[in-house]
Request: fold
Amino acid sequence: MRHEIISPTEATTYRAGELIADLLAPGDVVSLSGDLGAGKTCLVKGVSAGLGVIENVTSPTFNIMLEHHGRLELFHFDLYRLERAEQLEDIDFYGTTEAGGVSFIEWGERFPEALPEDHLSVDILIGDDDSRLIVLSPSGPRASALAEDWSAAVLSDVGA
Ligand SMILES: Nc1ncnc2c1ncn2[C@@H]1O[C@H](COP(=O)(O)OP(=O)(O)O)[C@@H](O)[C@H]1O
Ligand SMILES: [Mg+2]
Reply:
C-alpha cells in the first residue's frame, strides 16, 4: 500500500529521517527520487542522526557512495552522475547493498533493475512554499511493513 507523508519544512524532513532510522533493519534498501533540491540528502542526514552517526554527513554526489557507522552501517549512494548500469559493479553496488547494512540510494530510480526485489521507493515532490510530499511505494513485504510503521511514526510524532 502507498503511504504519504507531508513535510512542511526542512526540519520535518530531517525528523522523518530520524524516525525511519529507529525502524531500520539490516539489509533494508530505500531508493530516493525527486528533483534536485527536493530534500533527499536532507532526509538521509536525519536517518544518519537517528542511527547515531557522529560525523557530518555530506551529499555523496561526487563520491557516488559514502559509508557511515552508526547503530547500523549506513551506505549513502547518489547515482546522479552514473551513466550506465555496468558502472554499478565498479562501485560494488550489489555487494554493498547486500552487506547487512542499510542503503539509501539517491536517484535509485535511474537503475530500477539494480534494486533488490523488496525495497522502499521514496519520491519527494516539491509543493507550495517549502512543503514536500513524500510518497512511499514499497515493492515487497519488508518494505511494506517499513512504510506502514514509518508513516504511523511520523503521524504520532509530537516533535513533528
Ligand atoms: N520541507 C523541506 N524538506 C527538505 N528540504 C527542504 C524543505 N524545504 C526547503 N528545503 C530545502 O531544500 C533543499 C534540499 O536539499 P537536498 O536535501 O540537498 O536535496 P536533494 O538531495 O534532493 O538534491 C535544502 O536547501 C533545504 O533547505
Ligand atoms: Mg542530494
